[in-house]
Design a protein that fits this description.
About 40% of the residues lie in helices and about 20% in strands. It has about 525 residues and is of the alpha+beta class. The strands form three sheets. The protein has a nine-stranded mixed β-sheet, with helices on both faces. A nine-stranded mixed β-sheet has the order 2-9-7-6-3-4-5-10-11, sandwiched between helices. Strands 8-16 form a two-stranded parallel sheet. The longest helix is centred in the middle third of the chain and has 22 residues. It is globular.
Length: about 525
């Protein structure tokens, strides 16, 4: 009975301790289990143990219909592919570069200094095809930060600009307007990135787009787990490329100075954001507002929606530029699922690389009538775990925040809010997004993209994600739902449920000064 109650609280079948427990859990969930390796624990598409809630006859299209208002919506009719492994993500990037005939558009926080193979692929593609155009959008602060060998993203890409010209090989570097004046001169590299970043991760090749939270760097191609979704749709890819071009329109351009050197030049008519931030924000806001409005008009959801359509809703967040589209979108989602749970029950899974959810997200989870699983990196799977200096205490800070949140949830009698920590030997975790099951056995909606759902995602950085709502008919939609379910259970198969006692023991010996740094960590990391 205790095991059954546990599974009723967490419908995602986290990895359990013994083969016997796994078998009992699987029986409750309807899984077929091989005790020797628990091989099928993440390939089930059957329903969890049902609660007494009344099941709804509404389709996901109907439940989430309010999310399609005042936003561009795309009907996807080709199969959507979920990429699971970092190595497969890397091979898809290389394949896209190699096969693209007309356009390549990459948006990332940075390009790792060791990614010479990727640069070589770009060089060969541009050399082979004189009609190919490449546009890469990076963050200016992160993209010009040098590593131990003195290399940066800008150093790595400047020879391509010199060889192929900035008309065919365009590199844009967005600079936050929040870092200006005296702070621009005083804050050193790395620490100055806490003011705001270009954090959007989109990778486009002709009419295909990969939406992810992963950067273009070696660990993201090997042992840093993220999420990746590949969509083949010309209109959606057009929108993403327009988004990148619009941001590039108020960013620095990488110019080659010869002999492997470079300089940055602001786009004509746009002021340097570090010198005239107010005018910069005014112009950037106008450019983004025009894009979002025209896209909403052009791609509004008109007419009857087919039950075989998969709906994709892209949203962006650029609070420093006055753009809060994704925040409003998330707020509607929280309200919709909470209201739905009142009559039917609802369960959701939300993942983030760090347990540093903003107050907006935490308050909505705590007040929601839905059941929530929160998946985050364990201290060992945190990217800061092996860092030096003050940064090495960041995982301890996240554990402190985690403990305080869980304590608050229990005070509010929210035993249906659970925390899972990703634990995989020699791997780190960078996954993010939402899986909403409503009251069904398979996910009825997912969100995937760059936001970590923290303070920075809401207030500081440029972010983009998509909401994917599968239709209720057709093999493509069923395959997508099954794939999303497998993806969630695969991540949870490398995770462990964490309770207050575990967190209390973990933070027991944390230095007192760490508590004083909490406000800074919450807003800057």
């Amino acid at each position: 009975m205790a095991l059954r109650n546990l599974l009723l609280r967490s419908a995602y079948a986290p990895l359990l301790a013994t083969a016997a427990a796994k078998t009992q859990a699987a029986a409750c969930l309807g899984l077929t289990v091989h005790n020797d390796a628990y091989k099928s624990k993440y390939v089930s598409t059957t329903a969890p143990c049902r609660s007494k809630a009344r099941y709804s006859t509404q389709s996901a299209h109907q439940v989430f219909e309010p999310l399609t208002k005042s936003r561009p919506v795309f009907r996807i009719r080709k199969p959507i592919r979920i990429i699971r492994e970092p190595s497969d993500f890397y091979h898809e990037i290389l394949r896209g570069i190699k096969t693209a005939k007309h356009r390549i558009c990459l948006s990332s926080l940075y390009l790792g200094g060791e990614e010479t193979e990727l640069v070589e692929y770009l060089d060969r593609a541009l050399t082979k095809n004189s009609h190919l155009q490449v546009h890469i959008l990076l963050d200016c602060l992160r993209g010009t930060r040098t590593d131990k060998t003195g290399r940066s993203s800008a150093h790595l890409l400047s020879p391509l600009v010199a060889k192929h010209g900035c008309e065919r090989m365009r590199v844009s570097l967005y600079h936050t307007p929040a870092l200006n004046g005296l702070s621009k001169r005083l804050w050193p590299q790395r620490y100055n990135e806490t003011f705001g970043l270009q954090h959007i991760k989109l990778y486009m090749f002709d009419n295909e787009a990969i939406v992810s939270g992963a950067n273009l760097s070696r660990d993201y191609f090997t042992n840093r787990q993220d999420r990746y979704m590949k969509i083949d749709d010309r209109m959606l890819t057009d929108y993403f490329i327009q988004l990148v071009h619009t941001i590039g329109g108020f960013s620095f351009e990488l110019q080659s100075s010869g002999l492997g050197k470079y300089h940055l030049q602001m786009v004509d008519g746009i002021p340097d954001p570090s010198r005239d931030p107010k005018q910069f924000v005014r112009l950037a806001n106008a450019a983004m507002a025009e894009l979002l409005y025209s896209s909403e008009v052009k791609h509004s959801l008109e007419g009857t929606v087919s039950a075989s359509d998969t709906l994709v809703i892209p949203t962006v967040q650029m609070n420093q530029l006055g753009i809060t589209q994704d925040e409003a979108h998330m707020d509607e989602f929280f309200q919709l699922t909470s209201n739905y749970a009142l009559d039917h029950g609802c369960r959701n899974l939300m993942a983030s690389a760090y347990f540093n959810f903003s107050d907006f997200h935490k308050q909505n989870v705590l007040s929601s009538k839905s059941r929530w699983d929160l998946l985050v990196a364990s201290p060992e799977a945190n990217g800061f775990y092996t860092a030096s200096g003050v940064s090495r205490y960041i995982p301890d800070m996240y554990s402190l925040i985690e403990y305080q949140f869980l304590k608050t949830a229990r005070k509010k009698s929210r035993g249906d809010i659970l925390i899972e920590e990703y634990m995989r030997d020699k791997w780190t975790f960078h996954g993010k997004g939402v899986w909403s099951y409503l009251d069904q056995k398979l996910p009825q909606m997912t969100m995937i993209g760059s936001p970590n759902y923290g303070y920075r995602s809401v207030y500081c950085d440029l972010e983009a994600q998509i909401t994917v709502i599968p239709g209720s008919e057709g093999s493509n939609n069923l395959d997508l739902q099954r794939g999303l379910h497998k993806e969630a259970l695969y991540l949870l198969s490398h995770s462990k449920m964490i309770d207050e006692d575990t967190l209390r023991q973990r933070i027991r010996n944390s230095p007192l000064w760490l508590h004083a740094l909490k406000p800074f960590i919450l807003k800057k990391m």
